[in-house]
From TrEMBL:
The keyword Kinase does not apply. Keywords: DNA-binding, Transcription, Transcription regulation. Residues 235-333 form the HTH araC/xylS-type domain. This is Transcriptional regulator. The lineage of its organism: Bacteria, Pseudomonadati, Pseudomonadota, Alphaproteobacteria, Rhodospirillales. It holds the Pfam family HTH_18. SMART domains: HTH_ARAC. One of its GO terms (molecular function) is sequence-specific DNA binding.
Length: 343
């Protein structure tokens, strides 16, 4: 790759059938907007963004829209690439089973300065073995699966991305990002590393984004929709749960409602949803508390009671565990009315 300061950094995004469109377009738009900001300052273009796929031409995304691949990934000269990004989407598991793709990723890891993933694209990097021994994150729905299937990776489920240009709290070379829009956060971090905070902040403002979002990926995700793969009995239970969060939701109660023994219920629940019933219930309650903190002028103690937490401190610990912020901090940032802090 040319070291000329006036040569744009080549950013390549790998697309495939069923790719999440925003995983591709979101980060590339950040780099394009960085070019706009640089041009406004009378500076040369900083980035050139292209898309590669199995062949040049249209690629069908998971939403049905087609994006255009500039060339086949086989024809890409990796020596010219600054940053290679692997996105996620419903087709990612097929990519994980393609030996040629995995070999290409391994080869790229030894050549390109930066190799990253967006959303569930982390599974491709994990399957290729390039994340072993590193911190990583991915879409919230894949975190527990990834931790189970790839124990050599240090999973950080509450992180928006694992990129750190100085390598103190992440990795400057191989890195990942969380679900969907976290790819935009990752791209902003790359722009900041390349051209400084002021330019990255200008890009974030142009896109109406935080430069650095507070908290982790779960904070901005209403992620409690029942999994489509759940059994009918579980689906009915999961539909019932959000309206009954103040009730006794012990393992025995939930198992009885699902028509199973506690032991069978725990096994089926973990198999279908990838987590324990207790963890899921806590997530449902935290999600409900988020909504109350955004929309109501309620004391934290009242919110805790309404959402099934026995004490405000239990709510605080759950918020820290899932969202990496306290209820008070969350309300200060997002509440439409002022929060009453008395218990």
């Amino acid at each position: 790759m040319s070291n000329s300061p006036h040569t744009p950094k080549l950013v390549v995004c790998h697309a495939f059938d069923g790719v999440m469109s925003l995983d591709v377009i979101g980060p590339l738009q950040v780099f394009g907007s960085a070019n706009d900001e640089l041009s406004a300052l009378g500076r040369p273009q900083g980035y050139e963004g292209i898309v590669v796929a199995g062949a040049s031409g249209p690629v069908r995304t998971s939403c049905g829209v087609r994006i255009y691949a500039d060339m086949a990934w086989r024809d890409l000269d990796l020596d010219t690439v600054d940053t290679l990004l692997v996105p996620g989407g419903v087709g990612v598991l097929t990519e994980c089973k393609e030996p040629q793709i995995l070999d290409w990723v391994r080869k790229a890891e030894g050549i390109v300065p930066r190799l990253g993933s967006i959303c569930s694209g982390a599974l491709v990097l994990a399957e290729a073995g390039v994340l072993d021994g590193k911190m990583a994150t991915t879409h919230w729905s894949r975190c527990e699966q990834m931790a189970r299937d790839y124990p050599a990776i240090q999973m950080m489920g509450d992180r928006l991305h694992s990129y750190d240009p100085v390598g103190l709290d992440g990795d400057p070379h191989v890195f990942t990002s969380a679900g969907v829009t976290a790819g935009i956060d990752l791209a902003l971090a790359i722009v900041e590393a390349d051209f400084g905070r002021a330019l990255a902040l200008s890009v974030a403002r142009r896109l109406v984004m935080f430069l650095k979002r507070p908290g982790g990926q779960a904070q901005f995700s209403a992620y409690l929709i029942p999994e489509t793969g759940a059994t009918a009995r579980l689906a009915n239970l999961l539909e019932w749960l959000p309206g009954n969060i103040a009730k006794d939701l012990s393992l025995e109660t939930l198992a009885e409602r699902a028509g199973m023994t506690p032991r069978t219920f725990s096994r089926v629940f973990a198999r279908d949803l990838g987590m324990s019933p207790a963890r899921y219930v806590e997530r449902v309650r935290v999600e409900a508390a988020r909504a109350l903190l955004q929309d109501e002028a309620l004391a934290i103690g009242q919110v805790a009671e309404l959402c099934g937490f026995r004490h405000p401190e239990t709510l605080r610990r759950a918020f820290q565990r899932h969202l990496s912020v306290s209820p008070q901090e969350y309300a200060e940032r997002f509440a439409r009315k002022s929060l009453v802090t008395a218990n």
